[in-house]
Amino acid sequence: MKILVTGGLGFIGSHTVVELLEDGYEVVVIDDLSNSSLEIIDCIQKITGKDFSFYQEDVCDLNALEKIFSEHKIDAVMHFAGYKAVGESVREPIMYYENNLVSTLHLCKKMLEHDCFNFIFSSSATVYGDPEKLPITEDCKVGGTTNPYGTTKYMIERILNDIHIANPKFTVMVLRYFNPIGAHESGLIGEKPNGIPNNLMPYIVRVASGELEILSIFGNDYDTPDGTGVRDYIHVVDLAKGHLCALKKAFDSEGIFYYNLGTGTGYSVLDLVKNFEKVNGVKVPYKIVERRPGDIASCYADPSKAYRELGWKAHFGLDEMMRDSYHYILKQHEDV
Ligand code: UDP
Fold first, then answer.
1. pTM
2. Which residue of 116, 149, 208, 335 has the smallest Cβ count within 10 Å?
3. Active site residue 154
4. End-to-end C-alpha distance for the chain, whole angstroms
5. pLDDT tens digits for 165-197?
6. 7 Ramachandran zone, left/alpha/beta (phi>0; psi -120 to 50)
């Protein structure tokens, strides 16, 4: 079976490519390196001892897609490529809508032209907006998104549904990620955001490693046990494995399916800081600042549908997530 992975050198994409190769799939990656680098290819080969095809192209480019689909008989597509910085999406909405929507439309168009009917989509818990209940189940209301990034995910879900209705064989797995953190245990691949990180975990590891001075905690007056925001952090390797379970289901079903990929447990910002300090024996200085606009108090999954229907659940706990996130950053420093 041959799987086309868009954004396959990015954070979640690279971990999923590793799992696919280790499970015996053939892999073709398309990535324009806008938020990744060529070294990741060597790292994936080092981890798996396996090779894969690589195209340095933009998923929006129809000619590039045509070339890939004519050179390979693709059985399924996993679509990770996309812009994902919330703040940037507020400043550059056209860029976000254009890139995230056009890439998906072009991909689906080429898939249908080449009789490829299995699509795994990277969606996000952000589609639930401020959730109507906790834990969040897949039937909770979607669409109350608070920024263009989130709205692209919501719009793509709608588009995929319409494509499925018009082409019932076109099977879609919509995977709604909670907060992916951690890194491969080898320390060879992980999350490497450009510039100053927006997300909590990359920020914590950079404070711990001395690259940044102090963590700003955005508000301690939320309606949560310690006042800081609560999220469902999931180890990226668990998340990657969820994609393989979804892929197997896509191969023997027809339909559009929605799954929360989270652990089901919510941790606060302070829980993370304290756990990180305990596991890694290093201090993370922090200060409490104003709330970040658009943030919600709590967000965590009910992941039981993925367990019932895909046989998937997360195995790693917070300790492993903290350990692997820090191990990755320390390894990056060693290698410089
Ligand atoms: N957060 C924080 N300081 C930071 C980054 C994030 O206090 O420098 C908080 C944020 O307010 C939220 C949690 O950490 O409660 C997770 O934020 P992140 O941006 O990682 O994910 P998301 O908001 O998308 O769930």
1. 0.98
2. 335
3. no
4. 37
5. 999 999 999 999 999 999 999 999 999 877 889
6. left
